Amino acid sequence: MTPWSLDRYRAELLAQTGLLRALVRDADPAAPVPTCPAWNLGQLLRHVGGAHRWVETIVRTRATGPVPHDLVDEVFHYGDHDMAALDTWLDEGARQLSDALDRAGPDARVWTVVPGRPLAFWARRMLHETVVHRADAARSTGARYEVDAAVARDGLDEWMANATVPEAYDTATGPPLLGAGRTLCFRATDDPAGRWLVDLTGTTPVWHRVADDAAVGDAAVTVDSPLADLLLLVYGRPVDGRVDVHGERALLGLWLERTGFWLRE
């Protein structure tokens, strides 16, 4: 599917950051984060805000190559005790990024981790970084996690697109992913628009959204789950809802492992 406009991604980024801030406003920053066990809640939020600031630097400076990402990774020296100050810091980072994207405009060219992508790549990436880490924060605080269907669908579209990069299927970086008969179907049980078909039978992975089950054919493995849980599944997060897997579970496991390579870097 065609990605959204830069302005829509900017608006959604601010909205999702607002939902994250509201979720943790009265929480304990020292609370553990079960889905990111190396971090406490304050460090998780520092990671999110640091990611926003890292991308803001890339966009503001029109970087043509990689930019140091200390703000994203080096969160362990923080000893946050004031959630109000952290809330303000999160808000400032998201707004600074949104403003930098707005000033640059959709036609600006900057370095992207997947080469050759437009500026909206970064707005989209930071949106879904925030969406998934909001799920981590909800797990930490015991809150219910919900995500807008359109946002979740776009998050899965982004994952499918990034899953076609060579690192995901190159045999030099892991076990073979491509092969005859290897197709996967992901179906959202609560969203008729949520159908994805992944074809691994060619020389490179191909994916597309399908309109209905008739367009799927006989996939080697089919995954049925609520939409939000499909998003969490691909990101390796616990799924509270029902996930039904039909067919070759081993293929699903391999695909999840190979396409999630960048989460482990």
UniProtKB/TrEMBL annotation:
A molecular function (GO) term: isomerase activity
Keyword set, alphabetical order: Isomerase
Iron in keyword set: no
Domain Mycothiol-dependent maleylpyruvate isomerase metal-binding: 14-138
Protein name: Maleylpyruvate isomerase family mycothiol-dependent enzyme
Organism (species): Streptomyces gamaensis
Keyword RNA-binding: no
Coiled-coil boundaries: none
